[in-house]
Amino acid sequence: MGSRHGKVARTPVSPRDPRVLMGPPPARAAGLAAPPARATAARAQLGALAEALLEQPTYQQRWRQNLALTRVLDWLETFPGEDWQDRWLLSGAEDQGRRWGPQDLAPALRNRLTAGLGIMIVLRAVRPSYAWLSSSRLLGVYASFRRHNQSEVFADVERYAARHQRHEYAAEAVNVLTRMVIVTGKPLRELDLADLDVYAAARQACGSKVAALPMAYELLRAVGGLEDLPPTLREAQARGQLSVAELVDRYPANKEIRDVLVHYLVERSAALDYGSLVNLVQVLVDLFWRDLERHHPGICSLRLTDPVAQAWKQRIRTLPNGRPRRTFHSVLLAVRAFYLDLLQWSLEDPARWARWAAPSPVGEADIRGYIKETRRRQARMQQRTRTLIPVLPRLITAATDELDAAGRMLSAARDAAAGEEFTIDGLRYRRTGRGASTWRPSALFVTPVDQPGPRFDAERLEDNAFWAFAAIEVLRRTGTRTEELLELTHVSLRQYQAPTGEMVPLLQVSPSKTDAERVIPADPDLVAVLARIIRRIKRDGTVPLLSRYDGYERAFGPLLPHLFQRVTHHQLQVIPPDRVRELLAGLARRAGITDVDGTPLKFTPHDFQRIFSTETVNGGLLIHIAAKLLGHLDLNTTQGYVAVYPEEVIRHYRQFVDQRRTHRPSEEYREPTDIEWEEFRDHFSLRKVALGQCDRPYGTPCQHESACVRCPMLRLSLSQVPRLLEIERNTHERLDEARRLQWLGEVANLQESLRHIADKKRQAERRCQQQAGQGGSGDNALS
């Protein structure tokens, strides 16, 4: 039988319960508070205590309270029990939620009964469960409980919460602590981390949110509770690094083999980081030995027969879902190294290792294809880089456009009142929410009006757009890894005075994968992006100090002024690596970036390192300098990144073509005739079109059937921008007509035309900006 409160589910535990009459009395969970004396108080005593809850009551208030208390006591006395808590549990109300109490009650009588139960809760005569509290509405009960129970401590909690009045969950965090005191019966400062875990599990089981729990944790620490625990709930709940034995025991195995694996992995762990150790444990314990035990029950020796070894090597080639395992060679190499290490150690320490020395089930023939697979993987990486480099400008443009649009959306939403409509880029939106709402009062929710769509948070939209833009700019200009990007701090940007006296900005990258610190010269564009990040995250003139969680080492770092920090789950945190990948993938998806065959393309943070190394080396930078910038200890590693475009092959082949021309028949290089020259000249006169000039190659026909707006070869003349705008207005009118008449095919064609018109307008804007930057006289035709 479970205990009343705590980690065990709440169940009726009264000795009068028929389910426990035949068994021993239930034991209380260790560390739980004993039921207060008020649970056994007589009716008259409860009435006197309840009257003390009222401050200068009127006759009507006193009468209503006595009536409510009488109703609930009359109902509870219909159930057997030693105290009021037992009667409450035996009533079955815990499982009924809002439908608790006598059935078929009139609303007025049910309200009276609920008011009486609220008095019992404030008096601590009844302690409902988290599930019941989550499903019931007790107006004013929590505030009354805080006034009459541990009032000084709760007053301190409310004062600390008032300092975070803009925090959307400050008020709810105070109610969280109140619920925990009601259910556990503990003094507020004696609540521990286990109580918070129980609360979270109970609320999640009911489908309720626990977003205010981190704030409640901080408030509890502020009033002297949770001593010797970290400053945040996330740090307190983080388990940290597991020992080798704990890692191995996640996969139950034969005890003797388990001990051998533990001792072996302890020896290897001295030369491995924690992430590599976790991977090696999974390979040797789960993919190797546990797989053998599942298919060969009772196996207890590392000396495998040939059929057993061959069957395992065949199984390891496929994943559980049936797809081929691309890293199966790495599994074979790890197992082979395991056997060879045991064999070598058996010669050095026979007493300890000789018993387990056995022939390796993985021979040289099995790993012979590793080099070929490595080359294939490198070829796939190079092909991916060649595919992404041409579309990178589209991703950059999409990030810039999204940030600009999100900024204008946020500015308009802030200026609008609740329920007011505003227009952005020709589309109407409505600011939703209530002006006097206390629930998330700072949130700027916006709902589209002209087109169907879900409500969204304008602040979150702009925040996502900014950090996607910032991540792309820093990654593509530095070639840093994801963890290096997130470890950048305010002090990473330094200055170096060159011998000429010029101040050169430098970006200092902390050691990560290779444990080697590196310094990258920062160009003006990179400095501008970093300065923009710093201005955004500064609070009260300084960058907040945060502790970053390292997912590879399973540990929190020191407090540092990290640059990539944002409010996540209503707390200021360093952006996690998964969030960076989500932002990049979502941006590529919304931008519609596809390969030539229409396959959607997705950018990852590591793609930018390959692109950076490729462009720097192919741009003329010496490869050993590129290796220093990328933090590579081996030039072969850098060569694998930059061998995307074989510049040497291309240059020699072009020289070969030039030499071959000298040996071609001279007739091929004769002067053109007048007819040929006139044909060539007339061809270029045909290039002039209404909107500008066609740049298609000589001798090629028009492939777009004179649909110049859609043609990428059209070079728009700035003087013809008004004509383009007129075409755009006409296309919008035709689109409205097609939508009204349900010409779906025409709608699709016109939408495609509008997309190309928008591209042409952006090209014209960029040309205008370039001319303005060069001091040209061209006017901005789009202004």
Could you walk me through the main structural features you see in this protein, from its secondary elements to its overall organization?
The chain has 783 residues and is α+β, with helices and mostly antiparallel strands. Helix content is 52%, strand content 7%. The protein is built from 29 helices and 14 strands. The strands form 5 sheets. A 4-stranded antiparallel sheet has the order 1-2-3-4. The protein has a 3-stranded antiparallel sheet with strand order 5-6-7. A 3-stranded antiparallel sheet has the order 12-13-14. Strand 10 (565-568) and strand 11 form a beta hairpin. The protein starts with 42 loop residues before the first helix and ends in a 10-residue tail after the last helix. 25% of the residues are buried. The model is unreliable at 1-35, 435-439 and 776-783 (pLDDT under 50).
Q: Strand content of the residues, in percent?
A: 5-15%
Q: Profile the largest sheet.
A: 4 strands, antiparallel
Structural class: alpha+beta
- What is the 3D shape? globular
User: How are the strands of the biggest sheet laid out side by side?
Assistant: 1-2-3-4
Low-confidence sequence ranges? 1-35, 435-439, 776-783
Gyration radius over CA: 36 Å
In whole angstroms, how far apart are the ends? 77 Å
Count of DSSP-assigned helices: 29
Percent of residues in helices comes to 40-55%
Compute the number of strand runs: 14
* Average of pLDDT: 80
